[in-house]
Design a protein that fits this description.
Shape: globular
Number of domains: 2
Distance between the termini: 55 Å
Strand content: under 5%
Radius of gyration: 22 Å
Largest sheet: 2 strands, antiparallel
Number of strands: 2
Number of helices: 16
Length: 371
């Protein structure tokens, strides 16, 4: 009898979660929410950085002069966009979790607080806190006659509480892991160049967000350069080795869009992944040991590769920033050579050579890369 009551309650709770569209799964949180968070970062922090760089390089007054002053801080168009990264990430996560409007709008405050309290590891704090606040907000949404008061109150209160409770610790942990990876890469550029390049590159092709991972870990510097190399190798690699099947449309959609388009083919035949992955294992240490390629722009750029040319643009904005703060004297021809070779030329060359060997071995056949 007791067992039946428990089963009935469990079933009822499952029905409640289903009704509220709350799906506790790896896909919903680690793929959908993480991917959306990267879009939020892109539409705030990354775009803000690009706007600042364009304004500085082309001396556009509207983009470089303050448009607002909050307390002692003056904001330009770019810095204002960057300051909104927390709310942008939280709302993007809420959108991925299919939050009703009152929950979604309440996440603006949650995102700002968790990002601010998370410090350098703010994006990871936003991911966790926004998910918790969003799902609890969905639970109470439309359950009372005063929904306009209850839902925002619960969502914001829960978000603020968890921002205070776990955001600093999550931020510190993420920042520490990122710092450890960067320290290890500086210490062992060859080995870490391979590991970071391959791991982040594969994450780019998988249905998870390499950009969000790099953003959450604040992965910059030499390790960021290795990540750029790995992501570019995956995108350019798949674009060129599948050219016969996908022509120019495939070249552009994969080379400037995403290598994730090949996931269906990877599932059918994992060996199609060999060429781009080995190419990333080669270009990673070349980036770290030969060209000392560093990502000193925004961390999210480390995980974007050639998607919209964000990776190379991020490296360039890092150069500009280094020149402004005196860390770099100028941009040299060797810098440009390294950027072009690592992001475009070497991934294409190595991927084509390795792919020919894989095809000769009979591991990959014509049509296996058709998207």
């Amino acid at each position: 009898m007791g067992r039946r009551v428990k089963e009935k309650k469990y079933s009822s709770f499952k029905d409640f979660l289903k009704k509220k569209d709350i799906e506790i799964s790896l896909k919903r949180y680690a793929i959908d929410a993480l991917g959306a968070m990267a879009q939020g970062l892109f539409c705030s922090l990354l775009i803000g950085t690009i706007i600042e760089t364009i304004g500085t390089q082309f001396h556009i007054d509207f983009l470089t002069q303050p448009i607002a002053t909050v307390g002692p801080v003056e904001y330009t168009v770019g810095s204002m966009a960057k300051a909104m990264s927390g709310p942008a990430m939280a709302v993007a996560i809420g959108y991925a979790l299919k939050c009703p409007p009152l929950v979604l709008f309440s996440l603006i405050t949650v995102g700002f607080s968790s990002n601010a309290l998370g410090g350098a590891g703010g994006p990871l704090a936003v991911l966790f806190v926004a998910i918790i606040a969003a799902e609890i907000g969905k639970m109470v949404s439309k359950e009372t006659k005063i929904d306009i008061l209850v839902t925002p109150f619960v969502t914001i209160s829960v978000g603020m509480f968890f921002s205070w409770l776990i955001a600093p610790a999550l931020g510190t942990a993420a920042s520490s892991i990122g710092s450890l990876i960067m320290w290890a890469t500086d210490l062992q550029p060859f080995l870490m160049g391979i590991l970071v390049s391959v791991i982040v590159g594969m994450a780019l092709t998988l249905p998870i967000s390499s950009a969000a991972i790099c953003g959450a870990l604040a992965l910059t510097g030499l390790a960021g350069g290795a990540a750029v190399a790995g992501c570019c190798a995956q995108m350019i690699g798949f674009a060129v080795i599948s050219f016969k099947e996908n022509k120019f449309g495939g070249l552009v959609s994969q080379g400037l869009g995403t290598s994730m388009l090949q996931m269906g083919n990877i599932v059918k035949n994992p060996r199609v992944w060999i060429a781009p992955t080995l190419a990333s294992a080669i270009t990673g240490p070349i980036a770290t040991c030969v060209f000392r390629l560093k990502m000193n722009g925004t961390a999210i750029s480390s995980g974007m590769g050639t998607c919209g040319l964000v990776g190379p643009i991020g490296v360039y904005t890092g150069w500009v920033k280094d020149i402004l703060n005196g860390a770099k004297a100028s941009i040299t021809w060797f810098d440009w050579l390294g950027l072009v070779l690592i992001c475009f030329v070497l991934p294409a060359v190595f991927s084509l050579i390795i792919h020919k060997i894989v095809v000769k071995l009979g591991w990959v056949k014509p049509g296996d890369l058709k998207i």
